[in-house]
């Protein structure tokens, strides 16, 4: 298959393991990067794993993924609830697109409960902590395989 998946992480996720571990767990983003790369390699996917605290950078990366016809797994973090530019960039993606959250956003307070991104993605994974990442990579591989089989 040898397709690319961009795993894009939004604001404050660089502090995973130290920031509100009672909500987000003790696993660091570097540990998540390692398991994501390992799962992608196992499934014959190239993996671009990135994190930014800046909305415009996220938009640039989504446009890059669009130009490469890459699949995207996005943990938009705080962008989830207000970022129209990120939402509009997500709409460009034609390859498999999965929204991922470490916490179960549906069980959170009102400010963290409704992601505006969810309406444009193929699937949403939330509440599984760091384990959601390899699951999302596996789901992308299955969606890519299904799309190839449909041709």
Short description:
The chain is an alpha/beta fold.
Question: Could you explain the architecture of this structure?
Answer:
With 151 residues, the protein is an alpha/beta fold. The protein has one domain: Dehydroquinase, class II (Rossmann fold). Helices cover 37% and strands 19% of the residues. The chain has five helices and five strands, in the order βααβαβαββα. The chain has helices spanning 21-24, 29-42, 55-67, 84-90, 132-149, and strands at residues 3-9, 45-51, 71-75, 97-101, 123-126. Helix 4 links the parallel strand 3 (71-75) and strand 4.
Write the topology of this structure.
Layout: E1 3-9, H1 21-24, H2 29-42, E2 45-51, H3 55-67, E3 71-75, H4 84-90, E4 97-101, E5 123-126, H5 132-149
Parallel strand pairs: 1-2, 1-3, 3-4, 4-5
Helix pairs in contact: 2-5, 3-4
Relative strand content: 15-25%
- Identify low-pLDDT runs: none
The amount of helix comes to 25-40%
- Structural class of the secondary structure composition? alpha/beta
Any descriptors?
single chain; 151 residues; alpha/beta; Rossmann fold; five-stranded parallel sheet; 37% helix; globular
């Amino acid at each position: 298959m040898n397709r690319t998946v961009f795993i894009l992480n939004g604001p404050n996720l660089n502090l995973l393991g130290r920031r509100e571990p009672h909500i987000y767990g003790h696993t660091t983003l570097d540990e998540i990067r390692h398991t994501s790369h390992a799962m992608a390699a196992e499934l014959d996917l190239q993996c671009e794993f990135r994190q930014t605290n800046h909305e415009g950078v996220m938009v640039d990366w989504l446009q890059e993924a669009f130009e490469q016809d890459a699949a995207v797994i996005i943990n938009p973090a705080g962008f989830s609830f207000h970022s129209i530019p990120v939402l509009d960039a997500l709409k460009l993606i034609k390859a498999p697109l999965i929204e991922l959250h470490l916490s179960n956003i549906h069980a959170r307070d009102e400010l963290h409960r409704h992601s505006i991104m969810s309406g444009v993605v193929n699937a949403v994974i939330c509440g599984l902590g760091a384990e959601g990442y390899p699951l999302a990579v596996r789901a992308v591989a299955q969606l890519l395989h299904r799309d190839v089989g449909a041709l």
